User: Fold this.
Amino acid sequence: MGWKLITVAVAALGAIIALARRKDERRTRNRRWPTNLAHRGASARAPENTMEAFRLGLESGALGLEMDAHLTRDGEVVVIHDDDVDRTTDGMGFVRDMTLDEIRALDAGHDFSPDGESFPYRGKGLRVPTLREVYESFPEAMINVELKEDQSGIQEKVLDLIEEFDAERRTLVASFGYSIVRRFRRVSGGRVPTSASRVEISVFYFASRLFLEKFVPVGYDALQVPTRHRGFEVVTPRFIKAAHSRGVRVDVWTINDAAEMRRLLDLGVDVVMTDEPEVLSRVLAEREADL
Assistant:
């Protein structure tokens, strides 16, 4: 995690312990949230963050979709991971500098290849979708949307869409940026679940190692983490127990190996984010059959 981040985490831990002595929060873990979350859709089989990838993800057994959001120049929320279109389309430029019409003219399946040789989606009309399209097309799916940049107005735009589609209970808004997620919590008044930011994750991680998690105020519903980070084993029995004791889920990304899925589920993680939801579906079906 780096010494700078560790220093920040320790300093923040001292501050929040002082705060927690004045306010004790009680949370209940959301057990309705699905274990199988398709990471950018079924992104091993279709271009990431496209309607095709989302459709395949749900058909493969996922009940939730993980995706990323940016604002266009004309204020539309589009679903794309990077802050530019270079990697995932046949265009070039920053999303924030382009209009929705300009982005929609691009081929979002241009360079996708499941085997490194064929390009089955090139020229097939796949476009960068809007968040509105996602809510309209998948009214039953849980939506995990990550705000990638601290763009002015993105929190309000995303909240407007969530409220328009009455999706507060089936949406989680994520961001690793503390200022981004803090602002969303403020504008939403806590009505929409959020994940922990990078700083909040670090604070909780180090607090759990010191058995001090009860002092950490948790204004989030999920800790979304990799299994390891910079030499640290993040997802451990102690970390999971600490999170659950505070009513917080542990969501792990991005897991595509069946054996690793089984190991994490045995540890007690709540959500597995995967590019291959069909593999996780088989693992979950096996576990159900064994009960």
In short: Confidence is low (pLDDT under 50) at residues 18-24. The beta strands are 36-39, 64-71, 77-79, 142-147, 171-174, 222-225, 228-229, 232-233, 249-252, 271-274. The chain is about 35% helix and 15% strand. The first strand starts at residue 36 and ends at 39.
